[in-house]
Every structure is written in C-alpha cells, then in structure tokens.
Amino acid sequence: MLFLDFIFCAFIAVVIIQAIFYIFFFSRFTVLKQEKKSRKNIDVSVLICAKNEAENLQNFLPSIINQDYPNFEIVLINDASQDNTLEVMEQFASQHENINIVNVRSNETFWGNKKYALTLGIKASKNEFLLFTDADCKPVSKYWIRHMSSHFTKGKQLVLGYSGYSKIKNSLLNKLIRFETLVTAMQYFSFAKLGIPYMGVGRNLAYTKNTFFKNNGFVNHMKIRSGDDDLFVNQVANKKNTAICFVKNGFTESIPKTTFKDWFKQKRRHVSTAKHYKLKHKILLTLIYSSQLLFWVFAITLFTTTYNWLIVFVLFLTRIIIQYVIFGEPSKKLKENDLLLLLPFLEVFLIITQLAIFINNLISKPDYWK
Predict the structure, then answer these.
(1) Residue 75, strand partner residues
(2) Fewest CB atoms within 10 Å of the CB: 36, 40, 194, 281?
(3) For residue 72, what are the β-bridge partners?
C-alpha cells in the first residue's frame, strides 16, 4: 500500500504540473489572435538548400516562383547533389531572372554539413530579409512571402512560421506525424509569446542577414550536423527580436513520410539537437515530456489496481478536459481539426515513440544530411 500511496501522491503532483503547463503556457497560443500587419513590400531573398531534390524542385518550385510579391529573389543552393538537381535549377533560372544559383561542391572540412551550404547561400543573397523553406515544401497560398515578411519591423528581426504536412486519407501514421507537428508548433509559439522563444522550423523561418552575421551565423554549432534552424533560433531569439506568423496564407506544407521507419529516422535527427538548447529550455521541455509520460504511467497503474479509483478518475478526466480545451483553438488555427478526436491515443503513441527515439539516440548516432 505504501507504494500505491506514493504513486497516488505523485499522480496528483503530475496532474497539477500538467495543468500549469496547459493553462499558463500553452494557453498563450490558444487565446492569441494574429495581428493584422500592414503591407511592407520589403526586398526579400527566399533560400532553398537542396541535396538530390530534382523531383521536388520540379514539383514545388513553381509555387514559390509564382508568389504574389513584387520584390523577391530565389536563392537555390545545390549542396553537392549527385542527381540532376543542378540541371533543374539551371532550367528554372534560364526562365526566371530573379533566381540565383549557388553551387556548393563537396568540402572535406564541411562534408555533409547543410549549414556550410546555407552559409554560402546567405552570403550570396542580395537582400537583407531572408526567408527559408525546403525543396519538398510548398506555400499554401501565393501570399506566403507577403505574410511572413510583414512581421519584420525595426525591433523584430526573426519570424517563426508554421509548416504542416499534407494529409493522407485513412493513414494513422500521417495523423501521428501531423499531431507531433501540431504539438511542437503549440510549444514554440507559446514559448515565443511568453518571451522565451526556443526553436523554429527551417521549412518556414525568416530572419535578417544582419542578425545572422552579427551572431556569427552557425559558427557556435557548425560541428553539429543538424539544427540549422532550431539551434540558430535557440541561440539568437529573445523576447524583443522574435515575431510569430500563424495566419493560414503564411503556412507552408511538406510531404510527410509514408513509413514509420523513415519518419522515426527523421525524428531522431530532429530530437538530437535538443540537448544543445539553452539550459532553461531543456529544463522546461524535459519537465513537459516527463510529466506527460508519468501522467499515463501513473494513471494506468492506479486504474489497474483500482486504488482510489474515483479520485483518480476525476483527476484523469480533468486533465483530459483541460487538454481538449487548450488544443481546440490551436488545431483550428493550424488547420488540424481532424486530430482532436484521437487526441489521447495520439498523445500516448507519440510519448512512446519519443521515448524510443531518446533510447536509440543514446545507443547510436542518427543519420544526417547526406
């Protein structure tokens, strides 16, 4: 009984911690309304770093070329591709004068390091305001550049955007991928609103060239082969210089993985950078994840033993209701409404997957940009 007494008390503490995170942290994004920004028409450079992405460039580059924006260039960075990526880039460049190609050859010192290629692309860009996406991404509207760039002001030099994944009908894996993306976005938008921004996604991210060079670019984490987006944001973002854009026409959308193995490998790379975040961010993120894990472990333990089952049930239901309330509005804002019905199931599946990723990363290093 002493053991169950301890589990019961710990369960109460975990529920309280979870409630605090949902009510005082994540609710910041739930109640947040996107500010209407005036039209600026500043000169923007859109940067796309591609490695063996010929097919994706053929499919998605037109959606960027056809953006309804008066003053922008497209910087295409070919990172030592072994397919015909460079030829595809050259084909587009011959038809559009605002395309600038940066052809990066293999370098022994920086082999396989996307940050080296991106740095060369940033140096070659003509404009102060930089907007980043990936070769397998497409803007959801022709006003993507307009919405993201509208958040640049004298004080805001870094803009965090949202990039979702396209939906695949009747695919549980697709729902899990989109749920993980939704949760991550809720976290980094909420933290940014609280004045403690910690990450962004390179599929939809903007910052000024001055900010990049003033902070020595990727120098502080150049040897870490992942994290050209989140580690840079973690390094330079603060309460004063960071803005967020979550209006639908400012979204980008990517192709999701179609097998669990491929997605698992992708997430291993992403998660591996978190250990390099600032200490305060690591503490908060660890507390969020560990409290989620313990909530389900303790709840299942107490339910199976029927220990104080009525109180446990009330606490369990209260936490689930709070979660649904907090997730409701963000899922609408980010156009992921269909995930709400499976919310508890997807959360459990994601927690187990994240635990497996953490264990795998302790045992071996994940694969990186090749």
Answers:
(1) 47, 100
(2) 36
(3) 44
Is 330 in contact with 30 (CB distance < 8 Å)?
A: yes
- Parallel, antiparallel, or unpaired for β 99-104 and 158-160? unpaired
Question: Average pLDDT of 104-113?
Answer: 65
Which residues on neighbouring strands pair with residue 50, listed in sequence order?
A: 78
Q: Which of 167, 168, 172, 147 is closest to 159 using CA atoms?
A: 147
pTM (2 d.p.):
0.92
H/E segment holding residue 44: strand 44-50
Q: How far is CA 144 from CA 26, 69, 179, 320, in A?
A: 25, 9, 23, 35
Question: CA-CA distances (angstroms) from residue 339 to 32, 177, 264, 292, 331?
Answer: 20, 11, 20, 18, 8
Banded pLDDT at 362 (limits 50, 70, 90)? confident
CB atoms within 10 A of CB 92: 18
Question: Please, which pLDDT band fits residue 189 given cuts at 50, 70 and 90?
Answer: very high
Are β-strands 205-208 and 158-160 bridged in parallel, bridged antiparallel, or unpaired?
antiparallel
In angstroms, the CA 189 to CA 198 distance is 9
Alpha carbons 34 and 86: distance in angstroms, whole number: 39
pLDDT at 268: 85
Q: What is the C-alpha R_g of the chain?
A: 22
pLDDT category, 369, cuts 50, 70, 90?
very low
Cβ-Cβ contacts under 8 Å for 104 (sequence gap 6 or more): 77, 78, 79, 80, 116, 117, 120, 121
C-alpha pair distances (Å), 68 with each of 36, 141, 224: 18, 9, 36
Cβ distance 72 to 44 under 8 Å? yes
Nearest one of 203, 207, 202, 206 to 252, comparing CA atoms = 203
Question: In this structure, how many other beta carbons lie within 10 angstroms of the beta carbon of residue 328?
Answer: 14
The whole-angstrom separation of Cα 89 and Cα 99 is 9
